[in-house]
């Protein structure tokens, strides 16, 4: 029976280590996978002008610069005097340089001089119901946009300032972060004062008093600089109203990337709490309601997506911190004119991002004042329409206020003659039953308002009048446009839209200038589509999708492969209700000389049944693809809109999606070449059908578009297994736009390497907190063994006991997760999915056990080798130990006395020395010294145990007497072994805490000389408590009692002492790990140290055991191995 237990112990430990090693190795492999980089480099001619300090100010280690774009040499002082633009302050991130402003500043200069982007008539995103709130009707939203759109030229330029923060690592130390926020507040004040001084100076010389001095500064921060910007807004010294707009690029807001330092976590919580309270109004003593202090502040957070390994999208979310009316979180993958994921640093120089951000900031300038807009709703409207793609709202994934208006109501309000349109009395509007009550209320609210041109093309866009005689009447449910022939395609809605069919149009023609779409009522007759008063134009309802790279030619001089669609238009049954015909008008191609261009598919439209183009994958189906990929065959004439729903988020289990073209209806017999190969047929198919496009939607993450899809790993930057995830289900939706003229084979399989890298990346902080909990659980078992007067087990044996099933594994892993989920359900945070949360927490717990077991085995091997070498040499040279030593010199006798005094009180000496390091150097340095003390104690105890065993074995060889004649030898050896095992647990515990403070130590080392700041008082106190625990409780004391178990379970049950303390704080660290806040483990360890110090002090005062780091047990054990 004992042998079986040993084998199972090995199996459980081996499996835990194997899982941790496999995930780590596969994760590292996933990180090194190459991927296509779509960012374009930004070029510039930078000049950095130092902004001088005021006359009464003293210089510091930080500085402020003004950016100037251009290759000509300029006068710095004169340039500062001519300041007249809108001030923008750039704040670099962790280890960043002030020169990183050059990309976005240079692009904004070109944007101002070149003017607004060319007009696009695609559908723009609008407010969600939560974002609108006070802007409930669409006419108000349109009015906001109308005031913000530039008329040929921007009203003013942007003056870019940047702060030099000496490249300090603000992501590794909370104290550095606080210093940065204080300096940013000073920089904002200096900028505003500089504008006022420049305006006064120009007024004196030119007598020009018509200019307006800016009253606020736009803050743009990258990485930790974005959080510094938010911290500056709520700083106690900031001038009210001096910052009203904050834009962050790949910045953490919910939690820091390395949330392992207590002062770091406290500062984040402090700033976020201030923001939450800043958007809450208050009632004064007189009963007057006061506006929230941050009601005029707008914050936009742009996340890099799945390629950003430093700051995940969840960290960059403003959910729960800034209300939707004042905050917008968006990823670069769903950003207009970008649609790609960026790395943490490339988001700064990526030209697509820099250009779109520059034009958006320039649109924030008021046309009348030349300064930043005052109304926060106007600024939010600019950000929403210029940054967020309309694809999610067009496909119904994201609610939108314009989607609440039925299209039938638009047609009725346009004509003003409902009785003619529908054959009913005036004022009666037919709304489909599927339309919600909110839509009906919105329709009634908008009766008579000029919203009939909501999706119509502007009147100034030229369009040739259609000729009814040239109309093409489509006889099937698929419509194809092969050329810009200037003709109109007509489709009968009642004929093709049966049984709830939808209509979708994919085209590479631009709306309004290349193609126009109308819906016609039943009163319109074939051949008489000229009365446009009866029709509702839907051209600008088309949504833009990225086209990807230009398609290559199949052969030199031949036809190129089909270009991917650049726009998509979708109508639901409720949109088509009340209409008889759908027309697609195509603009004529300008006449050209010579041979006409080759035929190309320019638009494909189809009526389809969404039930036939739908596929769902359960968690079991998804897991089964690890062994065998799941395939689906799309035959010719299939639905162009194919919806694939994955039950598990692609952020947890990324999938490899492959779409291969099989055929396109071309028979080999009609080709000139005999027996053409498959590759030759595929070349022809690529010239006939547009390449597949995948739209990936994940509610917490957002949208990602994969154009020119062949084989791609679908991964979203979401974490559904974490507490506080954004709204929405954890299902990932993949929509395939595939040409119905071709047949395809689509396959899905889980990518294990990408899933492993995502797991380590997203849940690394959770594993860290659980690792501390696992060690505390091991110490709990060791303390309980001492209380029960049995042999103290090793750390590996304790881990094996924690992995036993069903108890305590089921209790500690999913059991506590269920309780945690119930608490989150009734708490303030958004609860995660139960299945994902249990699965992730269980794997994280096994991973943490594997890590601790590996550390314990490696450290045991090292100590065993070191003790063997030490005992070997000690026995070999023990003859020299009895020789008389040389007399000590007189000049060293004073030092010997000091050393003698310290040896009498070694514990006090260690506490004093480590405290000096904690206060005057760095807390992690003190923990490193504590680790050395633990290592020395482990080595000493193990050497003593091995020496006793060796001497006993030698004695047995010389004298074959009864080995039990001297039991004290066994007891002393066992005590040394127990001391080694317990101190090894302390070593592992404090090793993990020292590693958690490693980033802070690296940041401290990077700062040179007198510029180094003292450590945070909070970190110092908590580390001092950890030191007290390591020194004052370096040996187990079974006589300490906290819970009298004998009164409950009988006198045979030993009382619970420090096993209870370790168990309670182990559970606390377990919860802290699940909450992605491992820094809270410092509070638990410090409290253990405080309890230990108090008990030791009482023991000393009572005249009991001396408080010695090398103290012994109060009662001897009689047990043996």
TrEMBL record:
Enzyme class, spelled out: hydrolase
Pfam families, alphabetized: PGAP1 (PF07819)
Keywords, in A-Z order: Endoplasmic reticulum, Hydrolase, Membrane, Protein transport, Transmembrane, Transmembrane helix, Transport
MF annotations from Gene Ontology: phosphatidylinositol deacylase activity
Enzyme Commission numbers on file: 3.1.-.-
InterPro entries, A to Z: AB_hydrolase_fold, PGAP1-ab_dom-like
Main subcellular location: endoplasmic reticulum
Superkingdom in the source lineage: Eukaryota
Subcellular location(s) per record: Endoplasmic reticulum membrane
Domain GPI inositol-deacylase PGAP1-like alpha/beta: 83-363
Biological process per Gene Ontology, one example term: GPI anchor metabolic process
Position of the signal peptide: none
Transmembrane segment boundaries: 12-31, 760-780, 843-873, 907-936, 986-1005, 1017-1036, 1081-1097
Cellular component aspect of the GO annotation: endoplasmic reticulum; endoplasmic reticulum membrane
Family: Belongs to the GPI inositol-deacylase family.
Function comment: Involved in inositol deacylation of GPI-anchored proteins which plays important roles in the quality control and ER-associated degradation of GPI-anchored proteins.
Name of protein: GPI inositol-deacylase
Organism: Physcomitrium patens
